[in-house]
């Protein structure tokens, strides 16, 4: 069974696995409250999967600090 999106594709967007997990978990909690999905027709029915799809679609990302 192949999981979508793949970890390799996601790590091209966000290098750190820790950051990827933290961001997707936070977004999943937000999705469970608001149901406000930023992508059309998500493949996943679970909130974490939807969050990962949003990361792959570059709708959800970590802003870089310009200090």
UniProtKB/TrEMBL annotation:
Domain of life, per lineage: Bacteria
SMART domains documented for this protein: RNA_pol_Rpb6
UniProt record, GO biological process: DNA-templated transcription
GO molecular function: DNA binding; DNA-directed RNA polymerase activity
EC category name: transferase
Coiled coil (residue ranges): none
EC code: 2.7.7.6
Keyword tags: DNA-directed RNA polymerase, Nucleotidyltransferase, Transcription, Transferase
Gene Ontology CC terms, in alphabetical order: DNA-directed RNA polymerase complex
Catalytic activity: RNA(n) + a ribonucleoside 5'-triphosphate = RNA(n+1) + diphosphate
Pfam families for this protein: RNA_pol_Rpb6 (PF01192)
Entry keyword NAD: no
The keyword tRNA-binding appears for this protein: no
Transmembrane segments: none
PANTHER family noted in UniProt: DNA-DIRECTED RNA POLYMERASE SUBUNIT OMEGA
Role summary: Promotes RNA polymerase assembly. Latches the N- and C-terminal regions of the beta' subunit thereby facilitating its interaction with the beta and alpha subunits.
Similarity remark: Belongs to the RNA polymerase subunit omega family.
Subunit structure as annotated in this protein's UniProt entry: The RNAP catalytic core consists of 2 alpha, 1 beta, 1 beta' and 1 omega subunit. When a sigma factor is associated with the core the holoenzyme is formed, which can initiate transcription.
Protein name: DNA-directed RNA polymerase subunit omega
Protein's gene: rpoZ
């Amino acid at each position: 069974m192949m999981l979508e999106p793949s970890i390799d594709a996601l790590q091209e967007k966000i290098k750190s696995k820790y950051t990827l997990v933290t961001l997707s978990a936070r977004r999943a909690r937000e999705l469970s409250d608001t149901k406000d999905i930023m992508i059309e027709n998500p493949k996943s029915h679970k909130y974490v999967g939807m969050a990962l799809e949003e990361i792959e679609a570059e709708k959800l990302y970590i802003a870089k600090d310009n200090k």
